Amino acid sequence: RSLRDDEAEMHDLPKRVPRAVSVDMGEEQREHYLRALEGLINAGGELRNLDGAWLRMRQITSGYLAWQDGHGKHLLPFKVNPKLDALERLIDEMGDSKIVVCYDYTETGRIITERVKAMGLGYEWFYGGTKDQSASRRRFLDDPKCRVFVMNSESGGTGNDGLQKVARYMVFYESPCPPITRKQTEKRIHRPGQTERVYIYDLIMRKSQDRTILKAIKDGVDVYQKVVNGSMKNKNAFLDD
User: Fold this and answer.
1) pLDDT value, residue 22
2) Which of 34, 64, 73 is nearest to 173 (CA)?
């Protein structure tokens, strides 16, 4: 019901402007991506193999390899990460404006926060592991020096009001696959209380699953669910530009 109420109020909101920023994979990244895609194609109908191959493809597209073994968890960033570089350029171009950067996976949130920290900017990381989420949100809202809110879409996409009062820029470093999660996440800044035009950016890796995910969301389809339930027949779509 609250979703229907919000939709009725949208008519009075400033315009929402979607923008796509496309980048090419590095050579090393492309090699790993094609290998992961081959694993997805050859996974048959086994859920574990499908899910694992999909996860690797998404992580590779975001710029790293992650795995776990008897020695613990490991994260290996690629030396060249065009998507992360594009994010840095966007943040620079926005000057002193506050920006919400959305992602799906914890390892992705870690590499984003490391880059923002290296840029010398104040930030908050809002995800399931944030000890005091209310304090994290308040700092972003109240501290002019805290420019970047790195937010997990699942954790921050609902019940996280107030962002619209200070931010009009949102960047999806990784887009969530469920259309409802995507829609709710965008509403963190495009909702009553927003007084300025809102810009929603998607960082898209060419010839990857990124654009396929966005096309599916537009059609109201969760492409991840199609992959793991075996109904995604044309897996070469994940090479589309």
Assistant:
1) 97
2) 64
Q: Do 166 and 140 touch, CB atoms closer than 8 A?
A: yes
CA distance 140 to 88: 19
Q: State the amino acid at position 124 in one-letter form.
A: E
Cα(148)–Cα(113) distance, integer angstroms: 9
SS3 178: coil
Over residues 153-171, the mean pLDDT reads: 95
Does the structure show a pLDDT above 80 at 1?
A: no
> What are the pLDDT digits (tens) for 91-118?
999 999 999 999 999 999 999 999 999 9
Strand 98-103 and strand 72-77: the pairing is unpaired
* CA–CA dist 59, 55 (Å, integer): 6
How many angstroms separate the CA atoms of 122 and 217, rounded? 32
82-113: burial string, b at 16+ Cβ within 10 Å, e else? bbbebbbebbeebeeebbbbbbbbebbbbbbb
66 residue type, one letter: A
